[in-house]
Amino acid sequence: MKRCSLLTAFILLFTSIAFAQDFNENNDRWIKGWTDFVPNKTDYPKAEEKLPNIISEHTYLRNDVTYSISGDVYVTNGASLTIQEGTVVRCDYENPANLIITRGSKLIAAGSKAYPIVFTSSKAPKSRNSGDWGGIIIAGSGKVNTVSGNGIIEGNYNPQYSVYGGNQIDEETTILRYVRIEFSGNSTKRAVGSNGLSLYGIGTSSIVEDIMVSYSGQNSYAIKGGKNNMRNLVSLKAQGDDYQISEGFKGILNNVLAIRHPFINSSKGSYAIDVNGFNKELGYIKPSAVTDVTITNATLVNLSDKTNYQHTTAAISASNSAMTYIHNSKISGFSDVVKFDNSYTSLAVMQKAFMMDNSFFNIHGKGISSSLKGIDGTLDILKYNRFTENFVGVNDLFNDPKSAIAPKFHLKQSLNNYMVMQ
Asked: Tens digit of pLDDT for each residue in 368-409?
């Protein structure tokens, strides 16, 4: 695992200093002012203009018009779809809408804290549901670790518009700032459902920050290949995974919030973080090309208590030799911190592939789940992190975790009151 960047070295050097600090200092200000934790109550204006299903020329959406999309809308031919701050796009549920940015084209959706851009269901307030519409799909020309260096977007989309991947590592695939995606993740019209935001092979010059995906019927975020540093990401009550990362993605996710509910899950199992080293069906180039992600300042919370915690899974799923580093984060309400599949063949392999430090966890299981039996010392993987001796319900652990305005996941007790594993 390559952990030699200046940022990672800095993080590791000052771990002992940071451990004495409290997580609660100014770590949630970034979610205020643009997020919406009760989007089913928000009354959006009715749509006035419908976008065509093929956008092949540069197009600009103004915030004094409310737009609608229905069915599959493709941005093609190297065109850019630019969206002004404060614009609302209503997405059809009868003919579930998908916005697909094809390879070589671009989505520029730069909202602001005061005027975020919103993609939401076409249904009226209090009648919206997870999976009302499809989602946003962005295909880039960045690196993916398949043998061919390419892939096909999942979901049986138009084949001529479905290819992603390439060698343009520094491509500016998209600019996304202050964007909310609500009630996406439809799975009724396709064998493979859409995710809230799917990023395929995006380049390093792309900007993805201050994004909120709420009530997705599939995964909130699906990040496949590419290389990028993203920040200020929120996932609220997804049925699938909150953050699914695969196909050789390399990068850092900073300021990450996942809020799950013990009764909202996929039948296949759902995780806050699902890290997959490579696509088994497409193969991979070489061992060093597996997915390798650093996640810092994350709050991964399942809103469980002692009456329902048995319905929860591990917070993190690691499969197919993926490599993960978790730093300065809180994990609470899950059965375990991480679940390894059988590609992690020994304790030494697990320790090399998964590292977590300067973090806190509150779980009701053993901490580490593995399909391999008889491996001693697995809890050594969680060294240098604080934890609760016994499982604590969400309302007893945090200050205001169920606030409809802005949930607060500040520990009621000082971090130094919890046990430390070392």
From this structure: 999 787 676 677 899 889 999 999 999 999 999 999 888 999
Q: Show the domain range for 51.
A: 32-239
Q: How far is 300 from 257, CA to CA, in rounded Å?
A: 6
Number of domains in the chain: 1
Domain assignment of residue 86, yes or no: yes
CA 80 distance to own-chain centroid: 24
Residue 10 is predicted with a pLDDT of 44
Residue 5 domain flag: no
Listing DSSP states for 352-377 in one string gives HHEEEES-EEEESS-SEEESS-S-TT
Structure tokens at 283: 């193969």
For the cut 60, the answer to whether the pLDDT of residue 1 exceeds it is no
Tell me if 355 is assigned to some domain: no
Amino acid at 338: V
Residue 151 lies in a domain: yes
Provide the pLDDT confidence category of residue 28 given band limits of 50, 70 and 90.
confident
**Cα angle 233, 237, 243; round to 5:** 45
As a whole number of angstroms, the distance between CA 272 and CA 113 comes to 25
